[in-house]
Write a structure and sequence with these properties.
Number of domains: 2
CATH class of the largest domain: Alpha Beta
Number of strands: 16
Structural class: alpha/beta
Strand content: 15-25%
CATH superfamily of the largest domain: L-asparaginase, N-terminal domain
Distance between the termini: 40 Å
Bound molecules: succinic acid
Strand order of the largest sheet: 4-1-5-6-7-8-11-12
């Protein structure tokens, strides 16, 4: 019999570790249960892999921030660099899971499986989704074929690429969607069906890494809307943002007055990326807005929150709009 593959499970909190606070089915507190308690609830894991655990954080993912990202990336890389570790599973809240997954996808160097997993229902809920999600995540991480695909997210019997996944529903367990590019695979009670490969550079081929990662620059997201003024863009620049992502209407568009504010931001040395609030499609250069003339960057396929992650990392390397634009075509 083959020896079990060895995984390190890094816990950060989220609803998967959440517990209900009262007798009704609504209120709960995220990040309540320890990782040991989560594992104890799924004894079947012992047949899939030998698992060692590390609690990196115990937070709801709305509180995930740059400092925790860097700490998590360092712990993830340390686990992956250990010769006796075959893969990493990270438990995480679903709210900002896509951002953390994409961040790790850009900074960890590995061909081993790295799987993020969460749950929409707290561990104490009727029909909690966490135990099966955790079982499936461990099954994927323990499978050699799951390596070399970048960071993956497992939830609701689906496997998602970090670059493609987005949370699309406030409460339903089928919240995650991978849009135009589609799923990385399916996992049915631990049985893998892998699709792919991922379309853009990731992990081992990424130019970013946790080694010597400087403090990440401030990048703010400004949401466009009918009647958009310039005040929030001006305020972000005044507050010290080095980059701005516009969650633009339609094809990454914004009002004339907001364009004027964004142009002033570019002239003040702030990188401005146009993404879209629509949740789908590609923001291309120079369609309705003359990006070449105004110095803007088009987000290509990245939603605003992922464009922010790439811009933060990109700004640690360059402030040239043309070079930053190339990153949006590469990742
Ligand atoms: C969180 O993101 O930490 C809370 C929500 C969830 O995990 O589903």
């Amino acid at each position: 019999m083959q020896p079990l593959r060895r995984l390190r499970l890094l816990a950060t909190g989220g609803t998967i570790a959440g517990a209900q606070t009262g007798g009704d089915s609504r209120g709960y507190r995220a990040a309540t249960l320890s990782i040991e308690a989560l594992i104890a609830a799924v004894p079947q894991l012992a047949a899939l892999a030998a698992i060692e655990v590390e609690q990196v954080a115990a937070i709801g993912s709305q509180d995930m921030d740059d400092t925790t990202w860097v700490a998590l990336a360092i712990r993830t890389q340390a686990a992956l660099d250990a010769p006796d570790i075959d893969g990493v599973v990270i438990t995480h809240g679903t709210d900002t899971m896509e951002e953390t997954a994409f961040f790790l996808n850009l900074v960890v160097r590995t061909a081993k499986p790295v799987i993020l997993v969460g749950a929409m229902r707290p561990a104490t809920a009727i029909s909690a989704d966490g135990p099966m999600n955790l079982y499936n995540a461990v099954a994927v991480a323990a499978h050699p074929a799951a390596g070399g695909r970048g960071v993956l997210v497992v939830a609701n019997d689906e496997i998602h690429f970090a670059r493609e996944i987005a949370k699309t529903n406030t409460t339903q367990i089928g919240t995650f969607d991978s849009g135009h590019r589609g799923l990385a695979g399916l996992v049915n009670a631990g049985r893998l069906h892998l699709y792919g490969p991922p379309v853009r550079r990731h992990t081992g081929a990424s130019e970013f890494s946790v080694t010597g990662l400087p403090t990440l620059p401030r990048v703010d997201i400004v949401y466009a809307h009918a009647g958009m003024g310039r005040e929030l863009i001006d305020a972000a620049v005044r507050a010290g943002a080095r980059g701005l992502v516009i969650a633009g209407v339609g094809d990454g568009n914004l009002s004339m007055v907001a364009v004027a504010a964004a142009t002033a931001a570019v002239r003040a040395g702030v990188a401005v990326v146009r993404s879209s609030r629509t949740g789908g499609g590609v923001v291309e250069r120079n369609i309705e807005i003359n990006d070449d003339e105004l110095g803007f960057i088009a987000a290509d396929e990245l939603n605003p929150q992922k464009a922010r992650v790439l811009l933060m990392l990109g700004l640690t390397r360059t402030h040239e709009a043309a070079e930053l634009q190339q990153l949006f075509y590469r990742y």
